[in-house]
Please model this.
Amino acid sequence: MDREWTKNTFEQDGYVLLRGFFDEDQTQEVRDNIIRYVQDVVPLMPREQVYYEVAGDRSTLKQLQMMHTYDPFFETLFLRSPLRDLAELLLNGEVTPKNMQYFNKPPGVGKPTPVHQDGYYFKIEPKEAITMWLALDEVNEENGCLRYVRGAHKYGVRPHRRTDTLGFSQGLIEYCDEDHQNEVTILASPGDLIAHHCLMIHRADGNASDRHRRALGFIYYSARVQENAEEVQAYQKNLIIDLKEKGEI
Ligand SMILES: O=C(O)CCC(=O)C(=O)O
Model:
């Protein structure tokens, strides 16, 4: 990896795509562990950390939260791996690993990811955090690839409002022509890693194909940030109310 190019690209565009960050064997090992995790660990997880696209239909698993807290394989991957080194490079110093997530869009039923900024969800100041997204399948326009508004991380948090999308309860109120013009479509292969700044504006379409669209998300905060405990608590409370209303828990 060319560290200087990686850092410069991230700073300029708000994201950087690193092809083949994990080789074939490493990617397969991650996929095998997800299969094991879904079978053995998911049944033991709190319901508010497990989301299905169709409530009650286990074949439509779409999102898992805090995976690293339940399993040593994912704990190591998150806390002691090249991903953390990369986060330290991009955030200029020590980081706090915050959340490790599974993102799937199951074939046919995977819904769009509303346009949003992760930094709106993160109750931190300053907004110095990063999300890394590791592709585990071929990801293209058919099964819901990520789309970034290049350079959007330079202009702060934009207003959001509630959405109906499970797992992405907040979305940008306005997505203007200029955003569309600056949108970049990211086609990814298994093992490719995309790192984006928490102020990056991004979205993804639904999955109209007959293939899964699996990925892992790794969120790191800079060790310099302060989290607003009251806002985090209020967010968690509302999330649970929301999940109950949707019949998810
Ligand atoms: O996987 C997706 O569709 C969205 C992921 C995302 O929004 C994120 O990692 O911040």
About this structure: The chain has one domain: 3-245. The two ends are 43 Å apart (CA to CA).
